[in-house]
């Protein structure tokens, strides 16, 4: 499977995926005395305690958005998690992308910053791991996946969800430190495709600068033809985001992000179904990110703008195919499911946007997702699975045909 050809970094996690139970959520809202005024406050990506973290969850549900929140102490994180049942999986963009690729028979190499028995047990054998940790540690992320059409009563109002999404709670020292293994450099030098992500949990500006400088030195030995992708994330500290943007634009070929992350850059909400708004946002993103290419992935489509937009749009087609397959089949997805998804109808919103005058005028390439109507969709890891498909197409195109394009 040429596992050294696609290198994915920079940090993995152990995830405790909460089994959604509306009755327990309602009980906790009642027990904690949550008010509608608190829900309508601006969400903070940092929570001081379990109650603050739970408010963040309800705030995201109220806004029908996904998000990531740093919880000050591991004890507070455990306190929130103790009210719910959960299952243990592996997370982090690089790991979930690698696992998605593995499900369709494509191997890869991942860089990890922590190791423990859960990682040893759950990481598929088709994935090579490089790890910077010198001892075992376990600081799991807690993930809530909320469904559409749920109502939670709070004092003074009701929190209603209209679409599914996920919220991640984090207290993770290894990812805050983001130590890079010396073995990463040689792996990058051999790679046919590289994905970088994971700086979003770091807290120290000086340490972040140091890690980015170290990464730059390692990437200098990467082949000139090797595509390097940066996948954005939900930053716990916006100052860290600015440092990454200033450095990463000179290290990568394309900056990829979802609509929630795009909102953080343009500092306003936007309608991802409106061609004029999308065109404006994509132009703003390219300027703000100082990126030669920008890729925005949503539930309906991927949009690509830049110098090599056509090449990356072709790879994004496989990303949409992979994400749609995970949405329908979750962790049990197979190569057969992946191939069958090719015949599914394309998303109508994405199809309409292809010929939108503002989209065409701006030179944006739109790749529609696939319609997958299922009773219990998976929303955890969709962006990561998209990246897995994108990287598979960039680094192992002969092993996975690109999803049929739409002209």
How would you sum up this structure in a few lines?
The chain is α/β, with parallel strands linked by helices and 407 residues long. It has helices at residues 22-32, 36-40, 50-63, 74-81, 93-103, 117-122, 173-177, 184-190, 205-219, 238-248, 259-266, 275-289, 309-329, 335-341, 348-354, 357-362, 382-395, and strands at residues 6-9, 13-18, 46-47, 67-71, 86-91, 108-112, 127-131, 141-146, 151-154, 157-160, 165-170, 193-196, 228-231, 254-258, 293-297, 301-306, 365-368.
Structural summary, described in words:
By secondary structure, the chain is an alpha/beta fold. Helix content is 42%, strand content 20%. It has two domains: 6-13 and 93-135 and 175-395, UDP-N-acetylmuramoyl-L-alanine:D-glutamate ligase (3-Layer(aba) Sandwich), CATH 3.40.1190.20; 15-88 and 139-171, Adenosine kinase, small domain (2-Layer Sandwich), CATH 3.30.1110. The chain has a nine-stranded mixed sheet, sandwiched between helices. A six-stranded mixed sheet has the order 3-4-11-8-2-5. Strands 9-10 form a two-stranded antiparallel sheet. The longest helix has 21 residues, at 309-329. The chain is globular. The two termini are 31 Å apart.
